[in-house]
Structures are given as C-alpha cells and as structure tokens.
Amino acid sequence: VNISYTANTEPVSDSKTITRTINVTKPDGSVTTTKQTAKLTRSGVKNDATGDITWGDWDTSSWAAFTTPTITGYTPSQANVAKTEVTSATKDTTVNISYTANTEPVSESKTITRTINVTNPDGSVKTTKQDAKLMRTGTKDDITGKTTWNNWSTGNWSEFDTPTIAGYTPTQSFVAQQAVGGDTQNVTVNISYTAD
Is the pTM of this model over 0.90? Predict the structure, then answer.
C-alpha cells in the first residue's frame, strides 16, 4: 500500500491601488487636486507547506473622465481628462492643468496730416492737405483689458511742387516727399512769395 501526502492549500487574495492625480492651477494661483483611485485585485492559491503562491491575473478598473472647471475669460490647458482603463501595468499618473487668459485681435488706425498753406501775392491762401493713414494690430487680454500692440504701418507724403508765379519767388519751390511712421506728428508748412 502506497501512501502519499498532498500539501494543504488555501485561497488568498491581493490588491493594489493605482492613482491618477489631477492638479488644476487656477488663475489666482490656488490649486485644486483631484485624486482618482483604481483598486485592482487578484486571487491565488497558497501552498501551506512551501508558502508558495500561485497567482491568477489581476482584474482591471478605470479612472473616470474628468471635466476641467470653466472659468469665464480663461481657457484651460486641457478641457478634460479622458476616461482611462487601468491595468496592472498602469503606473501612478499626475496631470497638471492651468489656465491662460483669453485674448482677441484688435486694430486701430490714425491719420497724420501735412498741411501746406501757400499764400499768394494777392493775399489769398491755397491749402493742400496730405493725409497718411497708418494702421496697427494688437492682442487684447480680455481679463486685464491690456492690449499688446504691434508696430504701426508706414506711409508717406508725396512731394509738393509750389506753383510758379511770374515775377515772384516762393520761400520754397517744393516740399520734399517724406516717410510717415507711427511717431510722425502733424505738420504745417507755410509758403509765401516775394517779388523778384
């Protein structure tokens, strides 16, 4: 008669928790932290004689979808964090979200004028206005109202030739062409005649 022994066994179980940490940094610098935990379990059989455990597979779980809070005037770095399956191979994860102020494109224009007054010998005055219209674009911060401007465009005033009047000499025979930039101011040029 052959008699043998079989080691006693007992069921055992194991678990672990895997965490996704979501840090939301608000515009005022405060941070709201949300921790999403996924608990995984597995079952096994322990050999009471050797202490060895034969494990089954881990089960799976998931982290729920997360929607970033809406703050008027700001856009989050990501609007949501997707639902994610969690397996035994998944590691703890941290997601950092922040906000930037919304902006909008803006533009403006201005007209810079050169006024040329020609006083004729009879005292009458002929006025010529030369306009240069400049534009610039910028970005407005919707929260602070501050606008960051790009450079002004440029323009020019064309050359002006003083009319010739027989027997008279003008104080200047022409007004030169001139480039007009954002810092250029309105200008007045007065021209008159003297008898030869």
Answer: no
